[in-house]
Design a protein that fits this description.
This is ABC-2 type transport system ATP-binding protein. Keywords: ATP-binding, Nucleotide-binding, Transport. GO terms for molecular function: ATP binding; ATP hydrolysis activity. With about 300 residues, the chain is α/β, with parallel strands linked by helices. The protein folds into two domains: about 220 residues, Rossmann fold (3-Layer(aba) Sandwich), CATH 3.40.50; about 80 residues, Alpha-Beta Plaits. It contains ten helices and 14 strands. Strands 6-7-8-3-9-10 form a six-stranded mixed sheet, sandwiched between helices. It has a four-stranded antiparallel sheet with strand order 2-1-4-5. Strand 4 and strand 5 form a beta hairpin. Helix 3 runs parallel beside helix 5. The longest helix is centred in the middle third of the chain and has 16 residues. It starts with a strand and ends with a helix. The structure holds adenosine-5'-diphosphate (ADP) and magnesium ion. The site of adenosine-5'-diphosphate (ADP) has 12 residues, from helix 1.
Length: about 300
């Protein structure tokens, strides 16, 4: 399958000499939700801005929907809708007019049926005659998305779509993004909220100090780098981990009532069976046991520390 976005050996050095992106390579495929996850200042907005033709690259080759973003700028840009990090809308305009106007900027003929669909998809239909300044923050953000979708792009970039948005609106936004994907739109979002990447993405790219340090399917990332933990609540406390159990990395809680065994999520369960068998042989009884998997947050923190 041809990627919707292809980035090869991209470098960006800003005017002052600061290198914001270092040999970035990335491919994003039709219909996926890709989350670019990284702390503030990592280079997320720079990367998106270069792909969308707002910031010039220093070197590298970029294609959007198969079009070179420099030599075939118009076709490349037409395939892309961008919702920038900083929201700026014309406060006095009405929703319908603002969205229709955006379409016109791409030289596309009017298509009221499309504008109607976009406004309905984003639950803005009832507000179509309202002035933008009369809308809530969440609704303004939706108008920005509607504008970005007005010219029927196949690729949508959302730069920090929920930064500074309260939890409820964030859930709304996630719901909306999923709906857009159902229409076949390829979605690339940047975020510094791990929870957002975990909730939304099919694939996750982690960027740190201008370098993509990892790109992985979310589920694989979770099972590959994740840990599982088995906790056993003991009937009687122990004062130390019995020597027979040291084959497995087992820890004892401070009060001696809990044994904690941590293992790689992808590993076979042989260790667990062996541990339980040994406990039986030692006549160590337990009242209860639980297992849990590490969250993306724990994986991410582990990665950035490495
Ligand atoms: N116009 C600019 N000139 C010089 N440095 C910049 C400019 N824009 C961004 N930077 C720097 O590039 C780095 C990456 O910024 P940015 O892409 O906005 O990161 P992010 O979106 O991940 O928070 C930051 O250190 C930032 O200060
Ligand atoms: Mg940014």
């Amino acid at each position: 399958m041809q990627p919707d976005i292809s980035v090869k050996h991209l470098n960006k050095v800003y005017g002052g000499g600061f290198q914001a992106l270092k040999d970035v390579n990335l491919e994003i495929y039709p219909g996926e939700i890709f989350a670019l996850l990284g702390p503030n200042g990592a280079g997320k907005t720079t990367l998106i801005s270069i792909i969308c033709g707002i910031v010039n690259k220093t070197d590298g080759e970029i294609r959007a929907a198969g079009h070179n973003i420099v030599t075939d700028y118009r076709s490349a840009r037409e395939a892309i809708g961008l919702v920038p990090q900083e929201l700026h809308t014309d406060a006095f305009e009405r929703v319908w007019d603002a969205v229709s106007f955006s379409r016109g900027l791409f030289g596309k003929p009017p298509k009221p049926s499309h504008i109607e669909k976009v406004l309905k998809d984003l639950s803005l239909w009832d507000k179509r005659n309202n002035r933008i300044m009369s809308l809530s923050g969440g609704m303004k953000r939706r108008v920005m998305i509607a504008k970005a979708l007005s010219h029927e792009p196949r690729i949508l970039f959302l730069d920090e779509p929920t930064a500074g948005v309260d939890v409820e609106l964030r859930r709304d936004m996630w719901e909306m993004v999923r709906k857009l994907r159902e229409n076949g739109t390829t979605i690339i979002l940047t975020t510094h909220y791990i929870e957002e990447a975990e909730e939304m993405a099919d694939r996750i790219g982690v960027i740190r100090e201008g370098e993509i340090i990892l790109v992985e399917e979310k589920n694989q990332l979770m099972s590959k780098l994740g840990k599982k933990e088995l906790r056993l609540q003991l009937q009687n406390p122990l004062d130390k981990v019995p020597g027979e159990l040291t084959l497995e990395p087992v820890e004892l809680s401070e009060d001696g009532y809990e044994l904690i065994y941590t293992f790689d999520a992808q590993e076979q369960q042989a260790g667990v069976a062996r541990l339980l068998r040994t406990l039986g042989e030692l006549d160590i009884e337990y009242r209860d046991l639980q297992t849990r998997e590490s969250s993306l947050e724990e994986i991410f923190v582990g990665l950035v520390h490495e």
